[in-house]
Amino acid sequence: MSYQGYKELLVEQQGKLLVAKFNNPQKKNCINRFAYQEMTRVLTEVNDDEGVTIVVFTGVGDIFTAGNDLSQSSKSDDIDAFFKQSNATFKAMVLSFVNCRKVVIALVNGPAIGIGTTIVGLCDVAWCSETTYFYTPFTKLGLVPEGGSSYMLPLILGRSKASEVLLLNERLSAQEAYQFNFVSRIFKASELESLIWPKLREYSELPTNSLLQGKRLIKEGFVQNLIQANEAECKQLLQQFQHPEFFQAIMDFASRKNKAKL
Q1: Which of 138, 140, 94, 134 has its CA nearest to residue 234?
Q2: Which are the contacts of 96, defined by CB distance < 8 A and separation ≥ 6?
Q3: Which of 100, 126, 142, 238 has the most CB atoms within 10 Å of its CB?
Q4: Cβ(54)–Cβ(103) below 8 Å
Q5: What are the DSSP calls for 216-232, one per residue?
Q6: C-alpha count within 13 angstroms, C-beta hemisphere, residue 41
Q7: DSSP letter assigned to residue 76
Q8: CB of 115 within 8 A of CB of 146?
Q9: Residue-wise over 120-145: b if at least 16 C-beta within 10 A, else e?
Q10: What does DSSP assign to residue 145?
Q11: Are strands 125-129 and 185-187 parallel, antiparallel or unpaired?
């Protein structure tokens, strides 16, 4: 299968690995709605590719992703329609992670903010660099947990730590992420070519049916709860988009951005 026509992601097949890189370095790899559509597309297309066993998400440069591109809404003439369409696009993206039959690995090469953190919880395996931190400033933006994180993060981190991260905007360092089993390995940048990518290529050569059926069995115990969480989160997000707290947060964000340019 040829993975062509991607603009927001760099998508490349390397043997049985499919590598998808967030590719918006001018905006710290922020993700816009077109990138969400491409994430959905790649995770759907790969299901029919018998030549791929593992999908790896990582970022261009030294950052995974700074999260959602908050400047998108200012370019829309119909803000309500924009939020509804964005919400549907986002919901489909999360479901594409849930429904992906291939093993999905997050290779977190630097800071992971907002959706950058929550998609890590959707991946089967997560490794991060020493420079990584995880940060979900949802309440600062007048929003709520998304990306299935209201279910997955308490499941992984425990309720108290997950609430610190999702509600109180506490950052999770690379070491804390490892301590709380959010990632299973911390790597040095110098190890990427010599150790990490060779190890991933080695994993991709494991017996295909065994690998994919094993993933299916591991996922069966919680997938329905994850789907329900995504449904509830997206429903609440639509309501939050209409709340004065969110509009104030967006105005504050724009004000800080404008001051930074002066």
Answers
A1: 94
A2: 39, 40, 43, 44
A3: 126
A4: yes
A5: HHHHHTTHHHHHHHHHH
A6: 17
A7: -
A8: yes
A9: bbbbbbbbbbeebbbbbebeebbbbb
A10: -
A11: parallel
Rounded Cα distance between 44 and 97, Å, is 9
Please, are residues 41 and 18 in contact by the beta-carbon 8 Å criterion?
no
One-letter amino acid of 172: L
Q: Tell me how crowded residue 181 is: count the other CB atoms within 10 A of its CB.
A: 11
Q: Mapping DSSP to helix (H, G, I), strand (E, B) and coil, where does residue 147 land? A: coil
Distance in angstroms (rounded) separating the CA atoms of residues 239 and 227: 19
CA atoms of 114 and 146, how far apart (whole Å): 9
| pLDDT, tens digit, 9 for 90 and up, residues 101-124 | 999 999 999 999 999 999 999 999
| DSSP β-ladder status, 133-135 and 172-173 | antiparallel
On whether the pTM is more than 0.85, the answer is yes
Residues 149-203 pLDDT 10s: 999 999 999 999 999 999 999 999 999 999 999 999 999 999 999 999 999 999 9
Q: What is the pLDDT of residue 80?
A: 87
Residue 189: what pLDDT? 94
DSSP H helical ranges for the chain: 33-45, 79-99, 115-122, 149-157, 159-167, 174-179, 197-204, 208-220, 223-240, 244-261
Amino acid letter for position 34: F
Higher pLDDT, 248 or 260: 248
Per DSSP, the three-state class of 137 is coil
